[in-house]
Amino acid sequence: MPVSRYYDVKRDEKGERYLEPYVTGFLLLRLPLLNKGTAFTEEERRALGLEGLLPPHVNTLEEQKERVYRRYRLIASPLEKHIYLRHLQDRNEVLFYALLVDHLEEMLPILYTPTVGEAVREFSHIYRYPRGFTASTRNIDRVEEALANVPLEEVRLIVATDSSAILGIGDQGYGGMAIAIGKLTLYTAVGGVGPDKTLPVELDVGTDREDLLNDPLYLGVRHKRLRGEAYYQFLDRFVEAVRKRYPKALIQWEDFAKEAAFAVLERYRKVVPSFNDDIQGTGAVALAGVLSACRLKGERLSEQVVVVYGAGAGGIGVAWALVEGMKREGLSEEEAKARVLVLDSRGLLVEGRNMEAYKRPFAQRRERLRDWRFSGEYPNLLETIQNARATVLLGLSGQGGSFTEPVARAMLENTPRPVIFPLSNPTSASEALPDDLIYWTEGRALVAAGSPFPPVGYKGRTIPVGQGNNAFIFPGLGLGAVLARAREVTDGMVLEAAYALYDLTQERFPDLLYPPVRHLREVSPYVAARVMKKALEEGVAEEERIQGLSFPELYAFVRSRFWEPRYLPYRPAPVI
Ligand SMILES: O=C([O-])CC(=O)C(=O)O
Ligand SMILES: [Mg+2]
């Protein structure tokens, strides 16, 4: 019997679902997708060979949650909390997700940004159990056989990274596996995708980090990164193997550096349904937040002058989304691009300047600079804000602390209500601390950050800090694309996710830039249903059952398929 079929979900005489495991006894307690631990009932224990292997008292899921939560609360360090929760995930997935769903706001910063950044850095030192799939230069020649070893029958969602630009912390070698695991944890907890349908993937093509290569405990392959043709051949093989084993799977590309991010997205987006979270997810989340900020200011997006600081995957993705948003309000492409100014580490992108091809579409016309005052070869951040009279400033640089007091004050010179979003992750890479931005702008800036920050008290007011993280987009976008069986994730679907998030915020949280994180489980199904509707309109949705459905029907379809962390009753497989 192939490993992937170690259980089946069936329906009993009354139509209730039950689980039929093909593994019994001690092994059953070692498989995180099947293990109920102390919650196995007496009948199940007898029927499945578990008698005597568990304490006599049978727990409810509630009691189990109480037990693991109490211990969790006693742990002080965020990384140790992360390790504790991941250990639970590798022991009993239903319990892990049931706990997480109950304490979403408290635990997301532990399992996801910012602590996941630390887990990435320390991955080789904190490694315990296998989770996910590793394609490496050691096995890429046999990747099909290797993928056949994955004990999951029907993977629908893959998050794959080559770890070349993890969050704002750069090349992390094999450690990037932790980010793929973290993203998929969100897909299950807030995107309703069953854990058995998800697969984290590390594409280990090497690392350029000497310290990792020299660390005796490092777990990845020990050579420099593959580049050029060899790199793309590696990816081609991986994508081909995925298409064969999991033809219905969507691939979310995560944390690829700069040019590779764009090249990989374009190379495969029509081959497998796929999107890049940092380009498209971050772009959509930034667009939604800036639209909300404009609504709060009583202005239009197309009236703003936007400065995007950072020209990696995130920066260019955000510039793209804002240009598209302005075009929707009637601007031409050219007019919109003149309102979105992008800077990389060398200054403003200006036509004729030496720069990577993927940045060129967002370079400003030379003539633009005619009356500008600036000191160096190209205007720096402060000079760009001053000369262009920026009203919106978005940070995607990974340069912690780069939005200084003079930068914030320059924004306030241009507009009474500057919009300033330091979006880089984790917290250490944030371009500014939100409370500094609030103080420097005398309480007038509209602030959201990529990582979670507490609300800021200012002159008797409590100012919430929105979390402009792609977590508001990717679970819904991926879920919608998968449920629609979209052939392709189109730009239209990505933008629809942004407007869905904006509309939901406007309707449910009219005073905020983003919904509070604890509402993510409401956001994702709504985003998913809107994405499905768009996929239908654009003719890329292949799912028969959704053809012709109205929006409420699509929403009901999403809800009915939303995975919830609950134990099913178990019945032993009949002996033949
Ligand atoms: O993971 C996050 O928090 C958001 C993201 O994709 C990134 O910063 O690369
Ligand atoms: Mg990312």
Automatic annotation (TrEMBL):
Q: Which SMART domains match?
A: malic, Malic_M
Q: What residues form the catalytic site here?
A: Y112 (proton donor), K183 (proton acceptor)
Highest rank taxon of the organism: Bacteria
Q: Does the keyword Metal-binding apply?
A: yes
Cofactor annotation comment: Divalent metal cations. Prefers magnesium or manganese.
Segments passing through the bilayer:
none
Q: Which residues bind a divalent metal cation?
A: E254, D255, D278
> GO terms for molecular function, please?
malic enzyme activity; metal ion binding; NAD binding; oxidoreductase activity, acting on the CH-OH group of donors, NAD or NADP as acceptor
Q: Which Gene Ontology terms describe the biological processes this protein takes part in?
A: malate metabolic process
Instruction: List, alphabetically, the SUPFAM superfamilies matched.
Output: Aminoacid dehydrogenase-like, N-terminal domain, NAD(P)-binding Rossmann-fold domains
Q: Where is the Malic enzyme NAD-binding domain?
A: 279-536
Q: Which cofactor does it need?
A: Mg(2+); Mn(2+)
Which keywords belong to this entry? Metal-binding, NAD
Note whether Hydrolase occurs among the keywords.
no
Could you tell me which residue ranges the Malic enzyme N-terminal domain spans? 89-269
Where along this sequence does the record place binding of (S)-malate?
A: N425, N469
Q: Which Pfam families match?
A: malic (PF00390), Malic_M (PF03949)
Q: Which PANTHER family does its entry note?
A: MALIC ENZYME-RELATED, NAD-DEPENDENT MALIC ENZYME, MITOCHONDRIAL
> In which family does this protein belong, per the annotation?
Belongs to the malic enzymes family.
Q: What is this protein called?
A: Malate dehydrogenase
* Source organism of the structure: Thermus brockianus
